Task: structure prediction
Amino acid sequence: MTDHLELKAYGKINLGLDVVRKREDGYHEVRMIMQTVSLYDKIVVDKSGRQGIRTETSLPYVPDGEGNLAYRAAKLLLDEFQITEGVEIRIKKCIPVAAGMAGGSTDAAAVLVGINRMFDLGLTRRELMARGLKLGADVPYCILRGTALSEGIGEVLTELPAAPRCHVVLAKPQVSVSTKAVYGKLKVAELKKEEHPDIDGMVKAIQKRDLDGVTARLGNVLETITIPEHPEIGTIKKILLDHGAGGALMSGSGPTVFGIFKSREAAEEACGYLKEAENGRLTRQVYLTSFFNRKSAR
Ligand code: ATP
Result:
């Protein structure tokens, strides 16, 4: 048992995001190719002499306390195992917020893993994933990490081999987007056939370690909602492609855009350009990252 933990909560992008149908209970059934990236929030968890859970985040607009998914993750396990000791959770946010990168979900996932270790609860990864689903559809994946096919409402996960190595530029425009609002506007029945990405083809390309096959199949049905509302997403995609990206796509419900590069120099150049574009007004955050796979995550 330990009194102090330092955790890395990695962000994700979607190489593919398809919505298959809206269920009667209002949830959307999805087929998504999930990919962890090397950008992470830093989370410190300490046991505390004071009872209860305290959270502190590095950004004023991310809620503390019950509004924070990391708090709810700690509470879920502490309540279940009737642990009365207090914990303090400090989160240094690096993953763009409300940006389609599962920032809150991955913080919750890291805290579930951390509390399990800190209090020697003995839960397996699958058992943690089942509890994570109570906090959010992306939380089980954030515990699994790496490259995966996500189906159902996000809880049916199939591990895939690590996607081919490459450089990934992440660019978050100034706006933030609510995932719930984007899904609310999506009319699945009205989507044209060609607006659905080729998820099965993407799975095969990953299995063949074919990076060109992956970039050729990047696709996200939620772009049909978010891009018309925020045209700067389209502008950023074009800049990435003009700078040599093999493909560029919006992640999740947006607005973060990523570009996939074979050449590190080209990726660095694209980052530099995006940081300066429109006198720095086009983007809020720009990062040069890579895919992060399950082996390196252990
Ligand atoms: P997803 O891709 O899972 O839909 P997202 O990346 O679009 O999520 P988040 O960064 O998780 O969005 O933020 C969504 C909202 O969740 C924020 O506006 C914030 O109020 C709330 N939130 C709660 N806990 C956290 C956290 N630990 N980090 C970031 N946001 C959090």
The CA atoms of residues 231 and 255 lie 10 Å apart.
